[in-house]
Known about the structure:
The complex is a heterodimer.
Chain A: H1 28-36, H2 39-60, H3 66-82, H4 84-97, E1 100-105, H5 108-121, E2 126-129, H6 133-137, H7 140-146, E3 150-153, H8 156-163, H9 180-194, H10 206-223, E4 226-229, E5 233-235, E6 240-245, H11 249-255, E7 259-265, E8 269-270, H12 276-287, E9 295-300, E10 310-316, H13 320-324, H14 340-344, H15 346-351, H16 362-373, H17 378-382, H18 392-396, H19 403-421, H20 425-437, H21 440-457, E11 461-462, H22 470-473, E12 478-479, H23 486-491, H24 498-508
Parallel strand pairs in A: 1-10, 2-3, 2-4, 4-7, 5-8, 7-10
Antiparallel strand pairs in A: 5-6, 6-9, 11-12
Chain B: H1 2-13, H2 22-25, H3 41-51, E1 55-59, H4 65-76, E2 80-83, H5 90-97, E3 101-104, H6 111-116, E4 119-122, E5 126-128, E6 133-136, E7 153-159, E8 163-164, H7 167-179, E9 184-187, E10 192-193, E11 201-202, E12 209-215
Parallel strand pairs in B: 1-12, 2-3, 2-4, 4-7, 5-8, 7-12
Antiparallel strand pairs in B: 5-6, 6-9, 10-11
Helix pairs in contact in B: 4-5
Amino acid sequence: xxxxxxxxxxxxxxxxxxxxxxxxxxxxxxxxxxxxxxxxxxxxxxxxxxxxxxxxxxxxxxxxxxxxxxxxxxxxxxxxxxxxxxxxxxxxxxxxxxxxxxxxxxxxxxxxxxxxxxxxxxxxxxxxxxxxxxxxxxxxxxxxxxxxxxxxxxxxxxxxxxxxxxxxxxxxxxxxxxxxxxxxxxxxxxxxxxxxxxxxxxxxxxxxxxxxxxxxxxxxxxxxxxxxxxxxxxxxxxxxxxxxxxxxxxxxxxxxxxxxxxxxxxxxxxxxxxxxxxxxxxxxxxxxxxxxxxxxxxxxxxxxxxxxxxxxxxxxxxxxxxxxxxxxxxxxxxxxxxxxxxxxxxxxxxxxxxxxxxxxxxxxxxxxxxxxxxxxxxxxxxxxxxxxxxxxxxxxxxxxxxxxxxxxxxxxxxxxxxxxxxxxxxxxxxxxxxxxxxxxxxxxxxxxxxxxxxxxxxxxxxxxxxxxxxxxxxxxxxxxxxxxxxxxxxxxxxxxxxxxxxxxxxxxxx
Amino acid sequence: xxxxxxxxxxxxxxxxxxxxxxxxxxxxxxxxxxxxxxxxxxxxxxxxxxxxxxxxxxxxxxxxxxxxxxxxxxxxxxxxxxxxxxxxxxxxxxxxxxxxxxxxxxxxxxxxxxxxxxxxxxxxxxxxxxxxxxxxxxxxxxxxxxxxxxxxxxxxxxxxxxxxxxxxxxxxxxxxxxxxxxxxxxxxxxxxxxxxxxxxxxxxxxxxxxxxxxxx
Lengths: 510, 216
């Protein structure tokens, strides 16, 4: 018997994420199909979003000045965005004055190159990471992996995602799509490949699972020479960075290593230390629905004798200045990544985060992603339409981003871009429609014709139709126009009510 | 150079902004540093800290602290204790007499040594009633950040005069420390996670138990 030698895949340092590029996600209506059919996922999402929503409402209603806080948050962020250049220069000067080294990265590639070079210069082959959206956005972990450096995620949910060869599906609870028995399986199979194994008798009880993560990560924290973080806020007038977290993994990464590299999106800037009192009330109540998150760390460059003695801050643009150029669209830059909009979104609750093809899912993702990445891909063109425009997201947003308004704005942009490129069927129909509606006599004639359809078809609504009508009727019925139009009824002397007349007419049919 | 490129892009994006003064351009309707309406801040602070599954003991005055420290550690089964260099020595006397192995973080202990010690004791900078939050500004009586992080139990001593109503008053009290470049840590209960099916687990990487001694 002969054995066939299989090509040995290049040995990875960390678990491989799923194959494929997020940008290749099919357009939203197509991508959701896979998730809508997953009843386990839908049950998890319903439970999770429902629970967080209830907690949020409870703690938000405790504060009598919640609306003033939101308005202050909105104004502070607007002030920052509209003078971002001077605040960033102030931030840099204060960071440098306090012993930090500041680097500027105009895109993901540059940010990754800077971080990889900094880590390489320390001669280490692994780093520990605090959960950070921007490092996911720039896909830093893969850049480090390619450079022979293992990046370990230390947030429990991020660890579940990383060990599960998976992608996050929510910005706050990234493993929201996994249940406890799946987590147990992942820990049992994968932990032993990358460090301290999970105990063989591990149960699926959440405290036991958290205990396994604590033991697995503790040895990594103890030996780590380089930590990588993001920042929730960067205070311009003092050079202070802030990280808000729950588990203490953030504090470990921010304190134990000798070198700390913080990757910060330029929109994270706030003008003054005092402004933090607004955001440190808005953020925890909006995101986890707690009065306060367990741990908040604030540090200003290097503190002699306390924590990392080499501190780097990488300020990242990666599309943010493009968003800033649109006076309406720039409102999305106020986002403080709380996730309240996704927890309340009826669309997100049913499809989960993976369908959005972006590290930023849900309503904020639908307006932010196509602005950051542009609208060249199928998924980015479809994201502004991934909403029923119900408006719940705008009501809960702690910095009052008018998300529905921005969704419509982005739809407009996508449609305009399409128009410039080709005349589609939709546009042709719209042109004909416009011609008909531009004169009353034309419109009246069409109404009368349409009204006769009811008599011919002998029903009041159209069910499933063949293509191309199916594009509409697969998801909803098409009501037929009334037998008599308003226009005709008015001309006939309008003595009776055509609507009740219609109803009784229908009722008379067998 | 990316810095000049990014700043140029920002300036090009903001051609619609004509007012150079940010404060005049976007007014912020908020008065900073205000107390909020809380009738009994100390009692609320205690209730809210207990809400986070931390334990709270009340000392009538500072003379009671040494006894309570020894009691809390004994009840929790701690065998060793680390203290920052600047802590009030009297607080530790009874615990040490009761046989608890005491280490000073002076010179600074290694990560591994701290990991082997069962408890840490610190003072505090500010307490926030509304949110049940303790803020450390890591001065000599609280020690460097690592100290109150690695051991599995944290005993924190706070005076009632350090307790303010809410976040705005706390920020006002902490701003001078931050402007002197002290790091600041806010602690609201023991470390916790809700990452698995949103079921809350107290105790992940930071101290799994938090004992607060409120004095006065």
